[in-house]
Amino acid sequence: MDRPLNSILIVGEDLPLLQALAFTLKRREYAVVVSSNPREALMSVEVGSNAGTPFNLLIADIRLPGLFELGLIEALRERSIAIPVLVIASYRSRELSNRLEGLKIGEVLTKPCNSEELLERVASLLGRPAGNGEKPPIVNGEPACLSGNI
After folding, report:
1. What single-letter DSSP state applies at residue 147?
2. % the chain with pLDDT above 90
3. DSSP 82-126
4. How far apart are CA 58 and CA 105, in angstroms?
5. What is the pLDDT at residue 5?
6. Predicted TM-score of the model (pTM)
7. N or C, which terminus of the chain has less Cβ within 10 Å?
8. 48, 40, 39: which is closest to 3 by C-alpha?
9. Separation between Cα atoms, residue 85 and residue 76, nearest integer Å
10. What are the structural domains, with CATH classification, of the chain?
11. Which residues pair with 57 in a beta bridge?
């Protein structure tokens, strides 16, 4: 089965956050798969790449359980799996910036971010025009990506 164009894998440990991200992206007609398990996410990316149905983008929280910080992305790079990556981080430090640079990741959103910024980065990474000016979805009474949850 072919994976649709603009297929995005979101990996992280905060399920409400993952659901808000998925909802925001699905409203813009992206195909989204959510995983809270980095090992399963790695297997999904490998299977898709080997079958000729790769994900087009990985959105990753760098504080993933089971793989230390950037372990999922490092594992993908070690396997020569080329996939654009957008990292969502709760902090920025010189050490983190150096590690991201070493992994050739230039796209980082620092929490909290807003939906428009997320959609612009995703569109840029996928070579797709940005959104249509819609307001962000409301999650737990606040606009998605505007609360302190992302």
Report:
1. S
2. 35
3. ---EEEEES---HHHHHHHHHTT---EEESS--HHHHHHHHHHHH
4. 11
5. 66
6. 0.79
7. N
8. 48
9. 10
10. 7-143 (3.40.50.2300)
11. 8
